[in-house]
Each structure stands twice: as C-alpha cells, then as structure tokens.
UniProtKB/TrEMBL annotation:
Residues 7-302 form the FAD/NAD(P)-binding domain. Its cofactor is FAD. InterPro entries: FAD-oxidoreductase/Apoptosis, FAD/NAD-bd_sf, FAD/NAD-binding_dom, FAD/NAD-linked_Rdtase_dimer_sf, Reductase_C. This is Pyridine nucleotide-disulfide oxidoreductase.
Amino acid sequence: MTGRTFVTVGAGQTAAVAARTLRRRGFDGRIVLIGDEPHAPYQRPPLSKEFLSGTDTLESLQILPEDWRADNDVEVLTGAEVTRVDPAGRRVELAAAAPIQADAVLFATGGEPRSLPVPGPRPDLVHYLRTVDDAIALQRSLAAAGRLTIIGAGFIGLETAATARGLGIEVTVLEAAPVPLGSIIGQRLSAEMVRIHRDNGVDIRTGIAVSNLQTTADGVVLDCGDSGRLEAGAVLIGIGINPNTAVAAASGLQVDDGIVVDAQGRTSIPHIYAAGDVARRYSARAGRHVRFEHFDNANKQGAAAANAMLGRDAVNDDAPWFWSDQYDHNFQLLGEATDRTVIRGNPEANDFTAFYLDGDLLRGVFGANRGEDVMVGRELLGRRIERGVLEDEDADLWELVDAEEVAS
C-alpha cells in the first residue's frame, strides 16, 4: 500500500468510474467514496425508462457491486454529508463523522433538480426524477393516479412520458418554449419529436408556462396563466438541474455555473479535482469552459480526473454525445446543432439522420434509430462534406473516413 488516500465527494457515476480507473491504473492506496444518498453508486439513465417501468431493479443498476468493492478495497460511505474540504490540509469534513485526511479529492457532486414551490396538503403528488428513491415514489404515484402531467419537455420529461404511456398512463406535457428541445436539436427535429409523442397518445402543449401549482386532497391544480388552470392526478417537474456547488464554494473553490476546472479536471486549489455534471471544464475544442450533464461525459471525465490524480496526462475533449430511448426508438446526438440541417432518410418513418452544418463543415449529428450514422459522424466531425453526399442514402459515409486515412 502506498499510504495515500483519495476521496470523492459524491458517490455517483463519475465517482464510481474514477474509483475503477484508479484501481486499473495500479493505485493501491485507500479509496473512499462519500455519498449523501442511502445507496451505493448506481446508474441514473434507466430511472426514467427501465427502472420506472419495472423491468430493472436497484440491484441491476449497481455500478460497483458489493463483491467488487470488497475485492478492490473501495469504501463507500452512504448517507453522509460533507460540509467542506479544508483547502490547505485537504481534510474532508463531515457533518456527523470524523474528518478524513486525503492526498487528493475529487468533487463529483452532480446536480439537483430545479424546483417549484408546492403548497397544499399533498406534496407527495408532485415529483422530481433524479434519484432511485424519486423513481420509486413516482412509480407508486402513477399506479394510484393513472394520469401524469409533466412540466418540462426536456429529455427526462419526454423519456418519462414514453415510459408512462407504455404503462397505460394518461400523459400531458407542458413546455414553456415554443418547441421542446429547440436549443439542443433545432426546431425541425423538435417538431419530429413532438409528432412521435403525439402519435403515441401524449398531449404535448407548448408555449405554456406554469406560474403556480397547488395540491389538493386528491390531486394537483396548475395555474397556466393565459392558458387557464389544469387539474392533474400527479405531476413530474422536469425543468433541468442546478450543479451542486455549495460544498465547493464553502471549500474556497472557484465556482461559476459549476466548479471551474482546467482541461484535466484540476480546480483552482492543488490536488482537488472536479468532474461530471458539476464540473465546468476548459475545452480546447470549444475554446471555452463547458459543462455537460450527460452519462458519457460523467464516464469520460471521471476517468480523466482519476488519471490526473495519478499524475497522468489523459485529457479527454471529445465532442459531447448522449442518447435517449423513447418508445421503441433510440435517439442519439453528437456534437452541436446548427441552423443548417441536412436530412438523410425518412423522418416520417422515424428512421433518419440529421447532419448539422456550418457552411459545409460538419458540426453535429442527430440519429433516430441510426446509431451507425452517428458512429461515422464521430469520425467526420470538423470535416467539410458536400450536402448531396450526406443526403444520398446510397453514399457510403465510411468511404469518406477511409479516404481521409489514406490521404494522411
């Protein structure tokens, strides 16, 4: 044993990947993951899908099973609250336990849902979906109410809508913006998402902002301004998350819509790092600091930060990528959306790819049931490609990759 101790503040996906990476890279010191939930690290993406529908269990979501933790000597403290990290001595202070002295600390505190006031006698009818306990509470509420109103048509809201419809629940989705996901996938693709959900029986209403909600003895009343009042059996609020930076701020770290870190995940204080949803990391590719709230980012940045803690230069600056499963469809977004979109395939059949161009420069790819196109798009990002080639279903895009490799 080296005698060194590495601690993560947070015990989710990012922390779990960091722990695995440290052991794979040969670190034989003490590893402690500290989480405020009562559960060991688990995957969050299935919460709105397989777990909510009942096909996955908490055990199947485990990232670091108990036997792996025992074999690899990784400690997980659950239900623990970190109050601050002493920046000088790197002492991790806890609310109800002795402090832990650390040689390196990784902040992986994620985020928490943006909330709305919930007055009235039945706050149990209003839900968020961030933790496994949130998902269990929503399951029970759906079974009792039989109908669900979702505030916010982001990916969590739309995934939950799809899952609820599969369970036979009546679903209404309220979105304040003119179209859902417009700033993420563009207006044209947003219209296709709306069509898919309406085809599956979801009542999607856009341009509706909920100004107030009030629980009653048997339901929830939503005040939708000029659109009137709406009664709901149960409500899910899905209007985004805020990065959990309170402990970082109390520890003297630089905070600006997340914990500010360099390309390797290093904070403004030596030997303290941050990664995942909470980290605002410098990206040379983007030319600025960025913060992503995706599963893939949690994995890659958790591994990158672990390498940095070991003194290894392993910067990851890949284009952002994430996926969303809704009904029988798989959607993937790589890179970024632009105003110029080229469609390959048949949107009405839910079998298409959208290529986002800046002039003729490929900036991003959105695939509906076309993972192969997204894979080749990853190799072509930043390349200049003729619109006609992208539109042509008979054109083999992998040949463009091969041609580039031969040329180089």
